[in-house]
């Protein structure tokens, strides 16, 4: 069985969605993220925009192989908001995504099951309006070689359709390449059999 080397995420922020229940309004948003710092910035923007709201609940997951996730009920009863939002991220099999659901309290309590349904539905609606894409998990390698074999190295890079991240082309050349994880072994083998090419994982 081949090791999975793709992941699903969203390409841009979702449209704003609105779910209503007993006068309470739940605004849902999904955002693409790559670091925990991204979440802080987005949450701050959402809170400023909805400054009169009662709760700003969220969940996120980051990572492509080792996942980091967080859920936040923001004052709602324990596990009635953040976890139902997070379960939608899992249900859609996504990562590198943040979902925020903002609640304006309508004066009537919904009970825990009502809250779970409201937060789950708002998160689901936000993801349904999002454009979901599949990306490859890539690894980076530094290849070093002498200028005289530049053509050989460049030919391999072109043939294998490798992505050049950075390059320093002098007497001693260094190129950082990005390789799809499942292709890495084959590509390393090709470089290692070419004489005078050093390759190491970053």
TrEMBL record:
Domain Impact N-terminal residues, every copy = 22-127
Q: Name one Pfam family in it.
A: Impact_N
SUPFAM superfamilies reported for this sequence: Ribosomal protein S5 domain 2-like
Entry-linked InterPro entries = Impact, Impact_N, Impact_N_sf, Ribosomal_Su5_D2-typ_SF
Family assignment from sequence similarity: Belongs to the IMPACT family.
Q: What is this protein called?
A: YigZ family protein
Organism field:
Gilvirhabdus luticola
